[in-house]
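Sequence in, structure out. Go.
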Amino acid sequence: MRLEVKPYVFDFKFSARTSRGEMADRKVWFIKLTDEEGRHGIGEVAPISRLSPEDMEDVPDFLEKLKTEVSKVQIPATEQEVFGLVDQLIPQTMPSIRFGLEMALLDLINEGQKHIFSSDLQNIKLPINGLVWMGDEGFMQDQIKEKLDAGFRCIKLKVGALDFETELKIIKSLRQISEDLIIRLDANGAFKTEEVLFKLRDLSKFNIHSIEQPIMPMQPEAMELVCNRSEIPIALDEELIGINGSRDRVDLIQELKPHYLVLKPTLHGGFASVKEWIDLAEMHGVEWWVTSYLESNLGLNAIAQFASLYPQNEEFHGLGTGSLYHNNIESPIIIDRGYFTYAKSSVWGEVGF
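Output:
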């Protein structure tokens, strides 16, 4: 196989803000694998600075070395062989590269038609949440109206950047619209440990479905206490970063006892790794959903197909980020009345290799 690398910068339609700061653009690397017969598969390597385990500056050099390694190996024939080869070539400390190579290899062995897991995109219809980004009160209220008008039944709000009273006001106004609306929150670790239970108590008045990562990760005793005493179900996200061994994953689930896991293939080690998280979660009675990591439509397509492998999971996935960029890759992806689905035509834009 021959590996090519193409850097790409996506421009946000607005300044995407979380409790960790703002992003005006998003750098990714597309990789293209080509076999001797000219068939190819495309993957997306999309870490985020200061959140992904990888150092962004190390990614280009590692991809250059990967070109040599890939040229020496046989093309895998099955999904399991793909996962085994990726495990052999890429350390677990580089989850976004593992995701990108898994995606490219799966695309390649499925004839390069963007059918990473599913051969029939027309049957995919996944319920998703509508994501409301942080900003001033007016900006957030405008987003909420837009999501409700678009038919979303589950709204996810980023919290932790505004003053808490303003956030309570926004959430209260959202709940007053409908008692049936599912409201999720994502704090990205913004709440202080000495304040978190008080804030969760105040938030619980509004019938909140769950809150992601209320405090910063790597505080196991504090997080165990939060999961145990919170009046809102706790979903772990950043807490899962770097937890790679099966025994360590079981220990985390058993000790912290979260209500939900939020699984991001680009952040949490690729598809094989997320599959293990799912197996362990279901073994221990923990619910889960899959979320994108601000990938382009190409990465989003792969993640949605992966999520569709679990039709028994009725949770709302986080797959509505494809409309964030001015210059996203053209795709048949459609977000329709709160569902992720595909147009009948399979038109895909070119990456530009």
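Check: The CA atoms of residues 82 and 102 lie 6 Å apart. The longest helix spans residues 95-109.
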